[in-house]
Amino acid sequence: MSSDFPTTAAPGQVSSYDEAETALLAKWPETKLDPSLDRIEALVELLGDPQHAYPVVHLTGTNGKTSTSRMIDTLLRAAGLRTGRFTSPHVESMTERISIDGEPLPEEVFLQAYNDIAPYVRLVERDSAHPLSFFETVVGMAFAAFADSPVDVGIVEVGMGGTWDATNVADGRVAVITPISVDHAKYLGDRPADIAVEKAGIIKPGATVVSAVQEPEVAQVLIERAAEVGASILWEGVDFGVEHRVPAVGGQAMSLRGLRGEYDEVFLPLYGAHQAHNAALALAAVEAFVGAEPLGDELVREAFGQMTSPGRLEVVRRSPTIVLDAAHNPHGAAALAEAVQDSFTFSPLIGVVGVMADKDHEGLLAALEPVLAHVVVTQNSTERAMPATELAEVAEGIFGVDRVHLEPRLADAIDRAATLAEVGGTYGEAIGSGGVLVTGSVVTVGQARTMLRPRGDA
């Protein structure tokens, strides 16, 4: 659709990025769900079904979606394709949710994307029992922006689940399934197999499914869905995978087995075995998308060497070293704990943890307990945040009273943790060998990132 509008603004349009952000935040939040695609289908129909203007790589799963989508984006751009990527949630800025050629939309372009669809949003809401949600509106913005660009491929990450997720109005040529475990239990169920039924909804007729290693009951759900719609499945560990990996300075060195050959001596500037598995998944997804054309060793090495993943085991400060990771459920926390032991030698490691009230905070803390000498309990500034005092009570039952510190303000919590790391804790560690890990929520990590990184850094 065209971005040209008359000088008189249409109803619902705004004049600044801040106004667009405010208008979006005033809509139904991402956590207020109505399992229906009616509103988003009505919106994209008015927009001319922009989600069908380009082939789509669609991602779902419990953890690893954002890192994997960024890797897919980088590989496809290295192969000469113009990419659009939709991801959620954002770490610091709402503009991160919609990227063209690997870069978030500038604020003025994000504003234009909002104004482009605002009149159509009003038309849909006029005839709907419920208004469009924040997520539905941003999905519509992304699909339209990709078509306007235009992009050669859309890389689209679900917000929650799959079948009823607003992104599912797109038909993925390749459906990528990262590991499925329990998260959003209130909405998706408390058994991985139940969650898999919802997530399998992104598998469309004739698609190629590229799946991480899954629990047997989850794999069976995916197999049944693929058979039902005539899709084919490629499995990590069978059709592709990580052949070898070793930690290295600044990341890790890997050998990957793709769909069409081996890729040796690949350096990935990200930490943790889980990121190596994300890399294998991304490589297979791109190979499946481009078809018979080989990617080439040099292209793969160069693309992975450029990889970044903000807020995912990201080192943002030194002296003491401060690491940010957006783990927000037990599965993610377990991968984080393993990665910390694999890639760092902090002694002691002090945790700063702030979680959302609707998450399995007890399971998350239990997964982190073996690697943290102390935990400083805090909260982020959103209404969904669990009060630090409540989280501290849970933490004391897991860590013991002596290892738990309460600092409701995030800035104070980071300062307290840095002091504990610098003095070496209470276990005789060498001064200066400690580190700080900020985790528990994407929002907590995003707010910490804003505090800790110089303004203007990517």
Structure, described:
The structure is a single chain. This protein is α/β, with parallel strands linked by helices. The protein folds into two domains: 17-305, UDP-N-acetylmuramoyl-L-alanine:D-glutamate ligase (3-Layer(aba) Sandwich), CATH 3.40.1190.10; 314-452, Protein-Tyrosine Phosphatase, Chain A (Alpha-Beta Complex), CATH 3.90.190. It has 15 helices and 17 strands. The chain has helices at 17-25, 38-46, 65-78, 107-126, 134-148, 185-188, 192-199, 216-229, 273-290, 297-305, 330-343, 361-368, 388-399, 410-423, 442-452, and strands spanning 56-60, 83-86, 98-100, 103-104, 153-157, 172-177, 208-211, 232-235, 241-248, 251-257, 262-268, 314-317, 321-324, 349-353, 374-377, 404-406, 435-439. The strands form three sheets. It has an eight-stranded mixed β-sheet with strand order 4-3-2-5-1-6-7-8, with helices on both faces. Strands 12-13-17-14-15-16 form a six-stranded mixed β-sheet. A three-stranded antiparallel β-sheet has the order 9-10-11. The two termini are 30 Å apart.
